[in-house]
Structure formats: structure tokens, C-alpha cells
Recover the amino acids of this structure.
């Protein structure tokens, strides 16, 4: 796991997105020649070819951070929703976790519109809780009572919740953003289409556990399952590109995991929905994805392992060393890489 570690000066952790978004920097890695180039994200179309297919994750971040009080004691409790297990049953990260034993109830909001009871105690501060609420629209209550679940390394308060969404987000369900898509703008979409570059969309609802550091032996690590949906038009576009020999370019590690997780041996995919826990490590043979757009990831994470598998460990390590030296901006609101 130490191979996926690196030192990063704190001032290189981006606290807000570039404005406009496509003004962020772009590091281009040409894997065949081991060449690294530096540009801006709005120049992306110049590195793509007519007929290339960009695949995006259109999942939308919900207001998954809830601040409440323990019923009967008044102690403050923070919950971060991780994934929905049933209609009202969620896996969450609790702070402070030691206060939340089985049977403890927590209330949210001044009017008691939302509450939950702990049904299961898991390792690492995780809990299973069942929510109770008035009416039948849980997501509307979250929108009213919850906060944007920005990562802890973003110290600056996000002034506009839409800044932590992609411009094409549509299907609510993620508790962390698919951040590779942050760099795209409507203007850039128009230019890509004008150059004959095709776009298609799937869904993977991102869970925050994906971004947690790997502890212990990476070969024994397991990625928590995440829900995906692949529409018929997306499957048709991907299969057409595979048949024609055109490049399928994944926008983000989330998109990559869906495509690779459902592909057959020849790279073809079928429409549908389900759960994926695919964990890609160096040595993995990619069947669908021929190029990848991604951000600079936290050390010792499954995301960095995936990108290492795609780029090659030594080449990616060199790229990260250069990124630190050239003072690229890192993590969710940071700069991007294009791996060709």
C-alpha cells in the first residue's frame, strides 16, 4: 500500500472549483510514449478524436450530512448517510459514534420532522439506522434539513450547493460527487459535440466509503457495493463504439467501475441496474475503457489504485511528483488528468 502514498503540501488542496470550471489545469498522460503534457481543461477537445465516446456519471449528490440531537439527552450527533439499504434503512457514519448504541434515537430539525433509531452497530463508526418522518418524501426532508456532504479536507464553506454538483447531475442518490465531471461546462459540451465527439450517461450513486483510506493489506480490502443504472441508449452507444473500434473514454473512476464491472470478455455491456463492488488493482486488464479523465486522488485510496492500474504505477508516480512540483490543485475541487 505504501506505493499508493505520497506527501502533499496542504496549500495544494483546492478549497473551491476553478471559475469557470473548464479553466482548471489538465495534465495529459500519453501512456504509450510515457509523455506528460500540461494544458487547461477547456483544451480537452484538441486531445480527442471524432467518434470518441465520453461516458459520464449523472448521479446527483444529496444533502447527506444531518445534524441532530440524541433523544432524551440532548447530545449533538452528526450522521453522514453512506448508502440506502432499504426504503428507510441506511448505513451511516456517526460522530461521535460511541454515543450511538442499538436502540438510541436521534432527532433532526426543530419540529421533529425527522428522526432515526439505531438498529445495528458496525466497525469504524458505521451504524445502521432506520428513519421515521412525516409524509412520504424522505429526499425532500433531506433537502430541507441536510447539508452538502463536502469532504473534510475542504475547510472553506461551500457558498452554493451547486458547486458540489456536476452541471449534468440528474438522478439523486450520491453522498459524494463524481468529481472528474466538475470540469465540464455547457460551452465545452457544445464544442465537443461540434467536433463529432459523442456523449452518453449512466448512473452510479457514490458512497463516501469509496474514498476512505485503505488500512492494512490492500489485497484484503473490500469496496462497499454501490448502486448503478445503465440505460439502453448508453449500452447501445458503448457497444457501437466497441464494434467500430472507437475509443470509450470514462469520465471518472465511478464510470470506469460500472463499465468494467458489467462488461463481457469482449467489452460489450448490457443495460440494467444493480450493485457493483469492483475493486481494480494494478494487473487488471481493462476491457472497455481506452482513456480516462480523472482528478488527483487522496493517497492510499482505492481510487488511486484504479488509476495506477490504468496508467502504470511508475508512470503515475512520476506524474504525481510533477503535479506537486508544478503546484497543481488536488482532490475534489482540484485539477484533472487525461490518460490516453
Amino acid at each position: 500500500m505504501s506505493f499508493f502514498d505520497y506527501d502533499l503540501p496542504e496549500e495544494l488542496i483546492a478549497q473551491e472549483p476553478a471559475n469557470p470550471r473548464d479553466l482548471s489545469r489538465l495534465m495529459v498522460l500519453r501512456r504509450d510514449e510515457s509523455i506528460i503534457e500540461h494544458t487547461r481543461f477547456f483544451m480537452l477537445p484538441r486531445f480527442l478524436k471524432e467518434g470518441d465516446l465520453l461516458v459520464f456519471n449523472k448521479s446527483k449528490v444529496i444533502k447527506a450530512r444531518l445534524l441532530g440531537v440524541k433523544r432524551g439527552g440532548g447530545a449533538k450527533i452528526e450522521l453522514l448517510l453512506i448508502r440506502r439499504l432499504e426504503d428507510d434503512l441506511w448505513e451511516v457514519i456517526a460522530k461521535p459514534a460511541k454515543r450511538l448504541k442499538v436502540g438510541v434515537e436521534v432527532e433532526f430539525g426543530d419540529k421533529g420532522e425527522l428522526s432515526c433509531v439505531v438498529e445495528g452497530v458496525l466497525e469504524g463508526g458505521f451504524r445502521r439506522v432506520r428513519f421515521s418522518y412525516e409524509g412520504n418524501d424522505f429526499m425532500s426532508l433531506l433537502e430541507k434539513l441536510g447539508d452538502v456532504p463536502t469532504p473534510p479536507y475542504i475547510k472553506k464553506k461551500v457558498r452554493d450547493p451547486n458547486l458540489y454538483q456536476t452541471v449534468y447531475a440528474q438522478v439523486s442518490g450520491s453522498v459524494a460527487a463524481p468529481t472528474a465531471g466538475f470540469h465540464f461546462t455547457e460551452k465545452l459540451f457544445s464544442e465537443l459535440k461540434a467536433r463529432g465527439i459523442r456523449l452518453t450517461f449512466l448512473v452510479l450513486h457514490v458512497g463516501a466509503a469509496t474514498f476512505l483510506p485503505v488500512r492494512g493489506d490492500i489485497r484484503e480490502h473490500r469496496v462497499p457495493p454501490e448502486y448503478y443504472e445503465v440505460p439502453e441508449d448508453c449500452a447501445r452507444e458503448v457497444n457501437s463504439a466497441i464494434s467500430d473500434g472507437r475509443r470509450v473514454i470514462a469520465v471518472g473512476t465511478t464510470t470506469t467501475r460500472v463499465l468494467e464491472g458489467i462488461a463481457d470478455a469482449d467489452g460489450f455491456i448490457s443495460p440494467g441496474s444493480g450493485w457493483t463492488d469492483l475493486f481494480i488493482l494494478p494487473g487488471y486488464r481493462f476491457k472497455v475503457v481506452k482513456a480516462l479523465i480523472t482528478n488527483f486522488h487522496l493517497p492510499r485510496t482505492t481510487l488511486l489504485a484504479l488509476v495506477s492500474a490504468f496508467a502504470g504505477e511508475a508512470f503515475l508516480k512520476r506524474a504525481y511528483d510533477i503535479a506537486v512540483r508544478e503546484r497543481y490543485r488536488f482532490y475534489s475541487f482540484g485539477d484533472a488528468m487525461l490518460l490516453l
Notes: The CA atoms of residues 267 and 311 lie 19 Å apart. The chain has two domains: 2-61+160-339, 65-145. The chain has a mean pLDDT of 93.
